Amino acid sequence: MNLTSPAKHLYNIHGAKIEDLISVPLLDKCLQNSITPLRGPVWVSKGEGFSPSGAKMYIHGVLLALHQRLKSAKNYCKQMDFAIDGQRGEITEKGILSMTTEELYLEQEKVNKLIEELQVAIKSYKGHLSKLAPQLQAEQEQCASYVYQHIKRLPANMVLPQGLQLKVYENGKDTGEILVYITKKEMENNCRNQPSVMMERLLHMIHEKLQYSADFKPTGLNLIPARLFDEKGQEIKNPLLLKNEQKIWVSYGKDYRSPLNRVLSLTFDRVTAAEKDGITVIYKTLLDPNVDLLPGCDNWEACTEFPDNFQCTNHQTLQNLEKVDMDSHFIQYKADPQIVFHVSVAMDKMRKALPRRMDYPDLKVPSTLWPLANMWLITKAGMILSRAMVQSCLAIGHPIRVETDDGTSLEGYKLTVQKRDKSSIYQHWGFGNDGSIYCKAYPEFVLTYLEELNVREEVTQMEHHIHHGAWSTAHQEIESSSAEEVTVPSQRQVRDSLFKNTF
């Protein structure tokens, strides 16, 4: 079995430890394929706990084989029925045509018995699968650490003179944590306190732990971990500096990849409208998860302002909801004008798999309609269009002033989404040789992401004409602790110290 260490435990199909081989049951008669009766199945362990996913795979394979045999047996039995009834023209099995009547009845009895055995076996294995359901659920929630749950978890502040408990992740991921236990004696054995030798030993030990996990798949030319990184992306070269409960990222030779890959993405919020003192006010509202909406640009209309064919609702029921600017970007569902979404941009975590509707039962349904919300198209003219809604594009918004905690003040323009307008210079972008992105209306400003800086934003609506109207002088202070996308002056010494150029 190519075990790298001695076997320690045997488990039956339900995960119970086997103390005596005599207690291992015989395989069902219909599964016996040897003169010597076979027992099983059993699962061997080198010390780790029982993994129900292995038993699940085995049961699925057995059920598939049993169903195929049952189908063949029933077809064969039907052929014999034709022969007994004298319907020889319906018979396709040549062997049946040469049987006598007595042989047919004996063969039919034999096949009926096999069919009964197969049906009993199928029912039995389905029962085994049902009994495994709680364990399968627990393993899915706990990932690879499930088989090590018999090992007592050590407190984070506990001093471990003899070993370490490490939280291991795959390079570029922040999920699928695997606990790895390293003993100091094992790591320092014959290393003569040489960090490089100890590092090689540590990598090999981690490899031995990870090879039992189906979640870890080597990526690169190496099959054994070649490098380790800490949370800050610094490469770990001295195992003696590792701390208990420390998070580390395993690489098979590649450089560190941050698990927090953020991308610019469209966000969709359902909105409604109400009349207040003759003025239309827009509010964010909840989306009914049971409403079936069709994706695609053909089913939605991009609007330069809030749709005028929307039927307003009662203001009193909405006054506690968040308001939305009337000049924002909206899209309206063509099949139902009462369904309107407010479209904006935000920095989102990159999705490596398309979301499923069942995963987001409330406000996240739009993410299943527009899975390409974080992908963009750049036209020859320099417009940046959304792959999810090609009618929508990036544009320069209103002027703002940002002040950081240390008092540094910068002025810029908010990044917005607008309906595509080829004649608007505020929707055309240029790309510098240094990787910067700037609006052609203001080439001295570059597209900048403020990351997670705590900033105090002062919105300045100056005398400044843009394609949808003129801004008058006014000041509105907003406390902001979230990330913002703005364009700021392109003085490199300011940008490099406070902001990160990104798209």
UniProtKB/TrEMBL annotation:
<feature type="domain" description="DCDC1 second doublecortin-like">
    <location>
        <begin position="1"/>
        <end position="56"/>
    </location>
</feature>
<dbReference type="GO" id="GO:1902412">
    <property type="term" value="P:regulation of mitotic cytokinesis"/>
</dbReference>
<dbReference type="Pfam" id="PF25510">
    <property type="entry name" value="Ubiquitin_DCDC1"/>
</dbReference>
<dbReference type="InterPro" id="IPR043188">
    <property type="entry name" value="DCDC1"/>
</dbReference>
<dbReference type="GO" id="GO:0008017">
    <property type="term" value="F:microtubule binding"/>
</dbReference>
<dbReference type="Pfam" id="PF24478">
    <property type="entry name" value="DCX2_DCDC1"/>
</dbReference>
<feature type="domain" description="Doublecortin">
    <location>
        <begin position="163"/>
        <end position="258"/>
    </location>
</feature>
<dbReference type="InterPro" id="IPR056415">
    <property type="entry name" value="DCX2_DCDC1"/>
</dbReference>
<dbReference type="InterPro" id="IPR057424">
    <property type="entry name" value="Ubiquitin_DCDC1"/>
</dbReference>
<protein>
    <submittedName>
        <fullName>Toll-like receptor 13</fullName>
    </submittedName>
</protein>
<keyword id="KW-0675">Receptor</keyword>
<dbReference type="GO" id="GO:0030496">
    <property type="term" value="C:midbody"/>
</dbReference>
